[in-house]
Amino acid sequence: xxxxxxxxxxxxxxxxxxxxxxxxxxxxxxxxxxxxxxxxxxxxxxxxxxxxxxxxxxxxxxxxxxxxxxxxxxxxxxxxxxxxxxxxxxxxxxxxxxxxxxxxxxxxxxxxxxxxxxxxxxxxx
Length: 125
Known about the structure:
Layout: H1 2-28, E1 32-41, H2 42-48, H3 56-64, E2 69-72, E3 78-83, H4 89-95, E4 101-111, E5 114-123
Parallel strand pairs: 3-5
Antiparallel strand pairs: 1-2, 1-4, 2-3, 4-5
């Protein structure tokens, strides 16, 4: 009986920790924001600041092949663009706009020195 009780308590603590972690992750993201800018492929942008119309074709290929996306605003702010696991359609739509301008909406979060936009909506400007 004691082993069963210990197992139940351990399971309950583990579930509580998982729920608390999930809550903390969601609480860390701010309210929905809409941000406009160029969708860049992070691999090329971070290694050589590749961007703009001359790089659009490459950005599109890189993103379609799995390179992470970023949103570069006119004032130079860079957001890592990540999919919302509840609805990945806006992320897939954003991939098609890589190398061009877009208006993206979602929750902004900052962790470990990285700011990201958890994507909820993708629009052409």
